[in-house]
Design brief:
This protein folds into three domains: about 5-45, no CATH class; about 60-140 and about 245-345, Periplasmic binding protein-like II (D-Maltodextrin-Binding Protein, domain 2), CATH 3.40.190; about 145-235, D-Maltodextrin-Binding Protein, domain 2. It is about 40% helix and about 15% strand. The protein is built from 14 helices and twelve strands.
């Protein structure tokens, strides 16, 4: 049976198998006889290069996530909409509030089996050798740089000599906008100043003139914009970054090596949920609303601005990680001697092709 026949048979049976995996293969766009509820025609036009993995027995896993970040919406969606269950996975969600080093150590040592997090927060600790493999990109588009309405800052070059507020000096948005500044000809270590404030204080710091811009992602940045009228200067989908992932799925190295089918099923389930989120932003926002202080309509607007249907895996993922590694070296985050291609090959794993 070829992949098209497999897909149509699964759809006709009422199983949402095509969204359980995601790869680069594209097949004919004729409409199948039956679409699972909420699955768009666009979403079914992509399928994994391997068949969906349904485990022979239920497998329990622990998945860490940040319940405060709307970019992790695919995690509760996968649980509530049955994507994990379709692959015979019994997933316990762990809302992890510790440092990234502690998170990666927890995954590497088996206290958790996998986690979802920001690539630009993970890549420096992964340079240290944690046994965690990045298996997929989850989405792009949740980091934003804000200025006041009426500000004379109209572009990145106007930030020379200015102060930018961030939540911490290792924050992923601090790393990302440092990269963007460097590419704009501004030294992020000398031409601008960075000041650390709690996330909820950053808007106040801008209004008081203590900073001239601040980096804050969704949902808090978006909520501050709607409340205070801030202007979004750039985001992490700007220009050449339009198709770059920012949030990734990392899996315990031992699980990848010893139970590859389980790791593959997890990737397929989560990426299936990401496709569902992209096709159903209003319903996905309602699922995430209990974890956020924002109303569902506001969350849905955020989700529509993200790229939840864009999930790089395999060679695409390695290339993106290598590109980030090159850029992080240029802004003195990764070590000068780190080889981006070798680094990307070491910290990623290809489970879907």
């Amino acid at each position: 049976m070829n992949r098209r026949s497999l897909l149509r048979s699964a759809l006709a049976a009422g199983a949402a198998l095509p969204v359980a995996g995601l790869g680069r293969a594209v097949f004919a766009t004729s409409r199948p006889a039956l679409l699972p509820p909420g699955l768009s025609e666009t979403a079914i036009c992509r399928t994994a290069a391997i068949a969906p993995v349904v485990l022979p027995a239920v497998k329990k896993l622990k998945l860490t996530w940040n319940a405060n970040a709307v970019c992790t919406v695919g995690v509760p969606t996968a649980l509530e909409k049955g994507f994990f269950e379709r692959h015979n996975l019994d997933v316990e969600l762990v809302n992890f509030g510790g440092s990234t080093d502690q998170l990666l150590e927890a995954i590497a040592t088996g206290k958790a089996d996998a986690g979802v997090g920001m690539a630009l927060r993970w890549l420096k600790p992964l340079e240290m050798g944690f046994d965690v493999k990045i298996a997929a990109g989850i989405h792009g588009g949740c980091m934003r740089l804000w200025v006041a309405q009426g500000s004379d800052i109209k572009g990145l070059t106007d930030l020379r000599g200015k102060t930018i507020g961030v939540t911490d000096m290792a924050a992923p948005d601090r790393n990302f906008f440092s990269i963007m500044l460097q590419k704009a000809g501004i030294d992020p270590g000398g031409d601008v100043q960075w000041r650390v404030f709690p996330a909820d204080v950053l808007p106040v710091a801008l209004q008081k003139g203590e900073v001239q811009a601040f980096a804050l992602g969704d949902p808090l940045g978006w909520m501050a914009r709607d409340r205070d009228g801030f202007v979004e200067l750039v985001n992490n989908l700007s220009g050449e970054y339009a198709h770059r992932t920012c949030c990734v799925l990392g899996i315990r190295g031992g699980l990848v090596r010893d139970e590859r089918d389980v790791a593959t099923a997890l990737v397929q389930a989560l990426l299936g949920a990401q496709q569902w989120v992209a096709a159903n932003p209003d319903d996905a926002a309602a699922i995430f609303a209990p974890y956020a202080k924002a109303p569902a309509a506001q969350l849905a607007a955020m989700l529509r601005s993200h790229t939840h249907a864009h999930n790089p895996v395999g060679a695409d993922l390695r290339e993106q990680v290598a590109a980030y590694a090159t850029e992080l070296k240029q802004v003195s985050v990764l070590k000068p001697g780190t080889d981006p291609a070798k680094y990307a090959a070491r910290v990623t794993v290809d489970l879907l092709t």
